[in-house]
Every structure is written in C-alpha cells, then in structure tokens.
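Input/output pair, single chain:
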Amino acid sequence: MRITLNATSMSRLLRIMSWRGVESPTHMINLLLAEALPQQPIPISEDVHDHSNTKQERAI
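Output:
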C-alpha cells in the first residue's frame, strides 16, 4: 500500500522521526500505529445501517 502525505503531515512525520532517531518513514508509521491501536476499541460487528454495536474489543 502506498500513502501520500501533504506538506504539513510530512513535516510532522519528519519532526517525530528526528525526535525518536528513526530514519525510515515506513518504520515510524508502523511504530505510531502500533502505539495507537491498543487504545482504540474496534466494533465487533455492525448492524444493517452500518452502526457499531455497543460491544467492542481492543484492536490488539
């Protein structure tokens, strides 16, 4: 998968990479996703109107 970042997002990503000493943008994005996922509950299922059911589980 390829993604495109706008100038603001690229600047922020490069700043985070610099702070953390990471040289690969792909690796940095993977790290950020891994850190964010445990905090985000995901719906177990959706009803016919694409609304999330109240039951949720952790992303990881």
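The longest helix spans residues 7-20. The CA atoms of residues 4 and 37 lie 21 Å apart.
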